Amino acid sequence: xxxxxxxxxxxxxAADVFNPWGDVDHQHDCDDRGAEIRRQQLLxxxxxxxxxxxxxxxxxxxGYQGGHFSGIPMTSERLLLGGLSHKNLHHExxxxxxxxxxxxxxxxxxxxxxxxxxxxxWGFLAEQGIDPRRVVLWNAFPWHPYHTAKGLLSNRxxxxxxxxxxxxxLKRLLKLGQFQQVVAIGEKSALQLKGLGIAAxxxxxxxxxxxxxxxxxxxxxxxx
Length: 224
Fold this sequence. Notes:
The strands form two sheets. A four-stranded parallel sheet has the order 3-2-5-6, with helices on both faces. The radius of gyration is 16 Å and the shape is globular. The protein has one domain: Uracil-DNA glycosylase-like domain (Uracil-DNA Glycosylase, subunit E), CATH 3.40.470.10. It is an alpha/beta fold. The chain starts with a helix and ends with a helix. It has eight helices and six strands. Helix 7 (187-195) links the parallel strand 5 (181-185) and strand 6.
């Protein structure tokens, strides 16, 4: 059940890793309810998809501009708050049963943090008219690894020792979701899935100039 899955996610702790569903970001959260709000938002996201979604799109790790504050992989707080409506992206695409809430301080980013990768991925679904509930977005390492020296508003590559816990959660999600197709977003995710013996199609990561190729590969994969 999604409830048990989200609860298990919230229990993970490691040095230089922020757990959006178990930790409060005392520097950047607007209050001490951040983890609770993010748990509820992820739970609603999964409840609307488990048993319905036939695609799992898997990238590498949560980032500070995305799931750190929204609680949902490859999803920015700005999208949830309506700041991307000019791009035809609305929070109802993410979940429809509750109203979204921000967890970051308003003085940091008045419209909420935004992540380019998240905008491209959600934009693809909107452009192609794909029901977003057909897709679950995830990460091989589902938490947010950051640089100690740079602080919580930074991203780093997860360590091999950290990935073990992430992979356990990935396998649990695959069993829960019974997806027809797993898609690895980027080379790092593809290598991890291959190492786990999980069959997956690889597409270009949309960051660093890869948006066009990501879209074309996804069209072939989902629209053929």
